[in-house]
Specification:
Layout: H1 2-28, H2 46-53, H3 59-69, H4 88-99
Helix pairs in contact: 1-4, 3-4
Length: 103
């Protein structure tokens, strides 16, 4: 029983670390220059991204591709520049972090 309690505690801490990592990645990679949680800046609001990909089983992979390679025409005329130097782990963490945002 104690082992189960320790496991639950560790999993809770892992979620906090991942959320912290996602926020750090947003800041460190310039994402907040063009995006905000609830309002459109140059790019779409993160909550609009969440709405667009809701129910899409390939959402993380699609978002990873857009972040890594950039995109054009998905959200209007302003293209998103590529972030090709980010690691696959960071790309996935960032995509999951954005897709997990709540209003």
């Amino acid at each position: 029983m104690r082992l189960a309690a320790v496991w639950v505690c560790l999993m809770g801490l892992a979620g906090v670390v991942q959320a912290s990592d996602g926020e750090t990645l947003l800041k460190d990679n310039g994402c907040l220059s063009c995006h905000a949680k609830a309002e459109k800046v140059l790019g779409p609001a993160y909550l609009a991204v969440v709405d667009k990909y809701r129910g899409d089983k390939d959402a993380v992979a699609s978002l990873v591709q857009s972040i890594q390679n950039g995109s054009k025409g998905k959200w209007g005329r302003v293209p998103m520049p590529p972030h090709a130097s980010m690691s696959q782990d960071d790309l996935k963490t960032l995509a999951r972090y954005v897709l997990a945002m709540k209003p």
